[in-house]
Each structure stands twice: as C-alpha cells, then as structure tokens.
Amino acid sequence: MYRTLTLCIALFLGLIAFAQRGTVAGTITANEGGIVQPMPFVNVAIKGTSTGGTTDLDGKFSFDADAGEHVLLVSFVGYEAVEKTITVIAGQTVNANHELKSQAIEMKTVEVVTTRRTETESAVVMETRQSEQVVNGMGREQISKGQDRTAGDVVKRIPGVTMVGDRFVMIRGLADRYNTVMLNDVIAPSMEPDRRAFSFDILPSGALDRVMVYKTGAPELPGEFAGGVIKLYTINVPSENSVKVDYSTSLRNGTTFKPFYSSQQSGTDALGFDNGLRQLPSKFPGNLYHTTPERLTAAGKSLANNWTADESSAAPDQRFGISLTKRFGQQGGRVNGGNITSINYSNTRQSYTANNQNYNVFDPSAQRSERIYDYNDNENIHQVRISALSNFSLLVGTRTKLEFRNLFTQQGTDQATLRTGKSFEEQFEVKNYAFRYQQRSIYSGQLHGEHELTTDVNKLSWTLGYGLGISKEPDFRRVRTVRDLNTTDADIPFQVIVPPGATTLDAGRFFSNMNENVMTGKVDYEHQLKGERNKVKIRVGAFVERKDRTFSARWMSFKAASSAQFDQTQIFLPLDQIFSPEHINTTDGFKLEEGTNPSDRYTAANTLLAGYVGTTINLATNTVISAGVRAEHNTQELKSATFGGARVLEQPIAQHPAFDQSFPIDLRKVASEIGLGHHSEPSRVPRIGTLRLLRFQFQQRTARK
Fold first, then answer.
1. How crowded is residue 423: how many other Cβ atoms within 10 Å of its Cβ?
2. Considering the chain, what percentage of its residues have pLDDT values greater than 70?
3. CB–CB of 203/197 below 8 Å?
4. Are 200 and 157 in contact (CB under 8 A)?
5. Which of 44, 158, 216, 518 is paired with 599 by a 20 to 30 Å CA distance?
C-alpha cells in the first residue's frame, strides 16, 4: 500500500511538472546569394542552461522548456550570434523563427590561403542542397563511422543504389551499363572484358573522400547515362602532419579455424598476383589445331597436374594500413601545400555452403514440379588486396590550386568450389570441382588545376588524366565426376566425365588477359554576373577521352586420344592421378584439344569528344532557372572476327547532341498562390521541385564486316 501511494504521488508531481513546460520551435534561415535557405546544424539554446537543440536539414528545431521568460541564443559559425527574449507558456508552443546574418568584422586586408573541406557531414549536406541536380552523397567523416571495407559497401548505403554481387552498381533498377562511374571527375576504367562496368570491390573505402550520386542530367555530366552518375573522390589535402598505423585481425563466423579448400598457390599470391605458376608454359604451342602428335603430347604433359583441392585451416583475416600526411609551407602563406600517402593491405578468407536447386515446370496433373538437381556448393574464397594512394596539393596565392592524384590497387581472388549433390534428371550423384584465380590491377592518375581568375566572378579548372586497367584469369579449371544415383556402396569410385571435344566445363582450362588504357582531358569555365537581387551563372566546358582495350582468351580440355584404344579404367582414377603425365599420349590415354576460336579476342578503341554550355539564373529569392545544352561525338571501333574467322569491323557509334533543360521552382509559394497555403499539413508541400521540360537524344550505329 505504501509503495502504491508513493508511486501515485510521484506520477502526480511529474504531471504537474510536465504541465508547467511549453515547447519552443521554429525555423532558422539565412540569405545566401539572394536566396533564403534553411540552415542545418544551427545551435539553438536557452541562455545559461543546457536546454536546447540543433536544427535539422530543413532548418527546423523543437525542444521543451520551463514556462516563463527566457533569452534564446542562436549561433552558427560565420554568422552573427543572436539573443532574443521569448515567453514560454505552459502547454503551448512558441514560434522562434529567425534569419541569420553573415558576420561582418572590420579588419585590415588579409589574404587567407586555405582549401574548403569536403569530407564532413555538413559539407556533403550543403553540397547536396546547393546542387541543381537530384543528388545523394556520403563523406569520409560518415564513412569512417561504419565498418565498410570497399567502395561497393559505401555506395550501397546511398538511397536508390543497389550492388549486384558486391561489385556492380544498379541505380533505380537500371543495370551497370546504363550508369557512369567517375573517379576524381574523369570516367573510371572498366575491369570487365564484356561489359562497361566499374568493379567497386577493388577500391578500398579508406581511400575515399566522398561519394556523390547524381540521378538527373546536367550539361556538365556525361550524356551516356540513363540511371545515374557516381562520382568517387579520393582524399587530398592534409590539415596537419601525422603518421597513422592501423592493424586489425578478425574471426569470421563459419570460416576461421574451419576446413578451407584451395588449389595450388604461387609464391606471390599473398601480394595479390600470380608469379606465373598458373600461366601457360613459355614453350607451349600458340595453336594446337595444327600441332604434331609429339608436340601435342608434350604440351599436355607440360601443364600442371593441379586438379585437386588442398585442405587447410582458415587463418583469421588480417588488415594493415599506414597513412602519412605532410604539410609544407606556412599555413596561410602565399605558397603552401601537402601530401597524403597511404598504403592498405588485406588478406581475408571466406567459406560458405550454398544450396543450389532447379525444378521443371509445374505439372498440373501431378500437382508438383519435378526436381532437376539438388546441389550443395562449398565456396572457398581467398582474397588479397593492396592499395596505395599518394596525392599532392599545392596552393599558390589565393586563387590557384594544383593537385596531383595517384591511386593504385592490386587484387587477387582465389576461389575453389566443391560441389556435391544429386542430378535427378541424369540419375547421377555428383562431385564437381572448379578452381578460379582472378588478378586485377588498376591505376588512376590526374593532374588537376583550379584558378580563380577574378574573385567571385570567374574561375577556370582543368584536369589531365590517365587510367590503366589490367585483368587476368589464368588457368580457370573445371572437372566433373559422377556415379550412379542408386549406389549403396560408398566404396564405389566416382568416374570423371571425359568430353567428346573441347569444352570449358569438363576437364577444361581457360586463360584470359585484358588491358585497357584511358587518357582524358577536361576544362571548365564559370562566369558569374550579380545584380542587386538577381544572379546569373554561365558555365562552359569540354571533355575528351581516348580509350584503348585489348582482350584475348584461350581455352582447351582433355579428351580421349583414341575412341577405339582408350583405356576406360583411367576414368575411375583419383583426380591427382588421372591427368598425370603417364596418362597423356596419342593412343590409350588423354590428349589436349583446343577450343579457342577467332571470336575469343578483340581490339577496341573509343574516342569521346564533348562540349557543353549551361546557365543558372536566380530571380530574386523565389525562382531558379537552370538550362543547358551538351553535345557529344562518340566513335567506337572494334576489330575482331566471327567464330569461323570472318573479319569484323564496327565503326562508328555516333551520339548526336542532347538537350536537357530543367526549372527548379519554389512550390510552396505556388501552393499558397493557388489556395493551398492553409493546408492542415503544409509540410507535405515540398519547398523545391523540378519541372523537366524537354530531353532529346539520338544515337546512330553502323556496322560492317
């Protein structure tokens, strides 16, 4: 009884205290360039107390305060602090809207040489709000708070972006071929031989300064995207001298200290590349179609007999990083700059089992679908990545900034797949093996300059870039073994499937190499005209890109040397014996057969020339008009051949001028003028909208053989 009475009294006193409090709410704005904008992250508090809050992205704030008269303090860096008296009435809300004014301090003329920070959350938010396109972004400050390892992990956190296989991006449901990836404002090199896509898993998250995803067109953006443009920026200007060393190790659930399978490894796999162990021998014939029986036998024996998986215990994941930052010149001096260099290394293993099932079409009479197969795939992935970044920056005076950016990444992925299960359609119990190693290298370098020709009037920026992408897949091997599905004796061996001809599936070996070189250049000029209430911004620029690529693949497999003399007992041998040198001959053993054809290699080049003109007009404080025109001329050349060897030459692909025009307008003002201003829920009316008037684009493609 005593405890119940005490609780009731406490609740009663709490209700009395709550009833004596009111709410302070409002919106904080500021006039920027003649346009009234909401101000996020502004501090609003009752002076002399800890009661207060911070404005959100729309400049709004709200907090509870004791009833009575208070002094409200509003402050934000770069603006005059404001103190205003308010009266809080219990149970009611007092509005405390305010427009900040820029802080004006009378002082002697001082030239300040510095750079704008771009990686903080507030900087990314302001860049997003001031953009004339629909854009989402994430800065290094926010990236560092998570556990993301690669650029792909970062990008997939942005709304509207989906990652496919942790490597390729999909924006608003459109696949990677419809999106463009730019690295430091130049188009990133592609790592895939048969698609125009950037592999996001090759770029570590620690190298990123910020990520911006543009979802609407603009004259300064590439015209070949339909889904979006992803801009990746690497870290650049250091703020102070520092040395930072990181090391971490982690245990992966279901993998670490568990059985792990892999194929034979080279001595440099720990550095992310193969030292030649998996490559074709140096004396291997360039073509097996017209090779003598003796040379064909010698070629088969020269290949490594590496068809089995080595079992080991998976070690913990290892990650190491070192970052060095160095400033030179006096901070704020006429000439100063800095360098930031970082090296990151990771060595990880992942093992999991995937269930793979397939069914025939539904049978209405039996009311079921018959299973085709039921497989369990034991995937073992060992990945090593080394990335090195070195960026130099130089500030000359107050109007010139030069940057030299360098990024190199080396990644090696060793994957072993062990498949077990049942094929109901073929009535087989299966044990299949696949061993795949991929080695990818990427280098991106840019020399960038920014020049403010006249303060707050016109500026010029330019970029020269070079990109290199290398992708190798040496000795991708696959082999299948089967036995009767109804076998009850566990000692009955599996038999290797011997193909009748060359294939990449049964006892097949696949080799490929791809090299891509990209050279780019761009220049942008911006000029501003300011009046008392209106402002006009004019932008012009040009972009040129030359991309050259070569790709070649070669594949072959073992088959019976002679159908009449072949020794059938060999197909029951263990995998480490069946393709050993003593079983490779031209009579009762195995021989190699090549399947490579002229369509397995190509040489391609792409030349892109682009120019644009854009303008933005700010009319008073209500309307912003943005329009632009971009013209692109794209020529693509492809030299290859058909399966039968007929020469194929494709040129050109010409993309004609595209016109894109948009008008961002103040929809709240429009809503009030047509009678919606007193809606019971005015927050549902957006403040800024975009009215797209016209977009025209035409492509023409011609091809000849």
1. 18
2. 83
3. no
4. no
5. 518
How far, in Å, CA of 288 to CA of 296, rounded?
7
Residue type, 17: A
How far apart CA 245 and CA 52 sit, in angstroms, is 39
Q: Distance from first CA to last CA of the chain, Å, rounded?
A: 98
Q: Are the beta carbons of 202 and 191 closer than 8 angstroms?
A: yes
Find out whether the peptide bond into 293 is cis, omega within 30 degrees of 0.
Answer: no
Short-list 439, 416, 424, 428, CA closest to 575: 416
DSSP string, 179-226: EEEEETTEEPPP--TTS----GGGSBGGGEEEEEEE-S--TTS-TT-S
Is the Cα dihedral 263, 264, 269, 270 positive or negative?
positive
312-330 pLDDT, tens digit each: 999 999 999 888 888 887 7
Burial class of residue 111, CB neighbours in 10 A (0-12, 13-18, 19+): exposed
Q: Which two tokens stand for residue 222?
A: 């590439």
Q: What are 217's two structure tokens?
A: 């067109």
Q: In the structure encoding, which two tokens stand for residue 450, read together?
A: 């920014």
Give the phi and the psi of residue 385 in degrees, each rounded to 5: -135, 130
Q: Which two tokens stand for residue 487?
A: 């076998």
The distance from CA 471 to its chain's CA centroid, rounded to whole angstroms, is 18
* DSSP 8-state class, residue 127: H
Exposure of 592 in the CB half-sphere (CA atoms within 13 A): 30
CA distance 237 to 130: 23
Q: By the 8 A CB rule, do 317 and 253 touch?
A: no
Give the pTM.
Answer: 0.73
pLDDT single digits (tens) 348-377: 999 999 999 999 998 888 888 999 999 999
Instruction: Let me know: does 189 contact 197? Beta carbons within 8 Å.
Output: no
| Token digits of residue 24 | 């302070």
